[in-house]
Amino acid sequence: MSGPVRLAVFDCDGTLIDSQGIVVAAMQAAFEAEGLAVPEARAVRHVVGLPLVESIQRLAPKAPDPERLAERYRDAYGDRYGLPEFQEPLFAGAVAALDALARAGYVLGIATGKGRRGLLRVLDRHDLTARFATLQTADDGPGKPSPDMLLRAMAETAAEPGTTVMIGDTTYDIHMAHNAGVASIAVAWGYHPASDLLAAGATELIEEFAALPGLIERLARGRQCA
């Protein structure tokens, strides 16, 4: 008899995919195209993970048309996506970690502030789409740190909070996990500093993907004994 579903949900940008260069460049180009003060790279990195329009509103609270800025961002992103020098690589060890979790019987999912079209584009580019049983995006309802994406992921896969873990690189991921009642593993290579992730309440922090499979197993055993 099979046991309870064990679900590992990943953020995309900054966790699986090193998208910092294109995200920052596209956001700055969008602001420049609208004649607005261009945000610093650090400010852009801080809002990655939120739904796009909310990110823009945080960067420019007085912007007259955030939706238009969002379209400018999408256009700038798409323009750069087709350039020969475009790079949006997977972080080292990501595929090996996904393989190890799948062999251990974990169901895999994504919860991202990206729209579904953008998520599918990047997953297809790296031949990852079929690995994930549930894909939750900013198009599907409230974004992080609302628990909605994790709640939908669990509902779609018949997983329970006690057998689910969220892996992400921003405080929004950690707060979403807390709001959904699931464990969280923060990664130290993404958009938010490790100190912020731990202060936000991350259950654990890893410095490299190689540590992830073993840590998830130890967390699972600890939660079973609790």
Q: Which percent band covers the strand fraction?
A: 5-15%
**Mean pLDDT over the residues:** 93
CATH topology-level fold name of the largest domain: Rossmann fold
Total discrete domains: 2
Describe the strand arrangement of the main beta sheet, using strand numbers: 3-2-1-4-5-6
Cα separation of the termini: 23 Å
Q: How helix-rich are the residues, as a percent range? A: 40-55%
- Specify the CATH homologous superfamily of the largest domain: HAD superfamily/HAD-like
Architecture of the largest domain, CATH level 2? 3-Layer(aba) Sandwich
Features:
globular, DNA polymerase, domain 1, 6-stranded parallel beta sheet, 46% helix, 226 residues, alpha/beta, Rossmann fold
Characterise this structure.
By secondary structure, the chain is α/β, with parallel strands linked by helices. It has two domains: 5-18 and 89-225, 3-Layer(aba) Sandwich (Rossmann fold); 20-81, DNA polymerase, domain 1 (Orthogonal Bundle), CATH 1.10.150. The protein is 46% helix and 14% strand. It has ten helices and six strands, in the order E-H-H-H-H-H-E-H-E-H-E-H-E-H-E-H. It has helices at 20-33, 41-47, 52-59, 66-81, 94-103, 116-125, 148-157, 171-180, 194-199, 212-225, and strands spanning 5-10, 107-111, 134-136, 159-168, 183-187, 204-206. Strand 2, helix 6 (116-125) and strand 3 form a beta-alpha-beta unit. Helix 1 (20-33) packs across helix 4 (66-81) and helix 3 (52-59) packs across helix 4 (66-81). The model has no long low-confidence stretch (mean pLDDT 93).
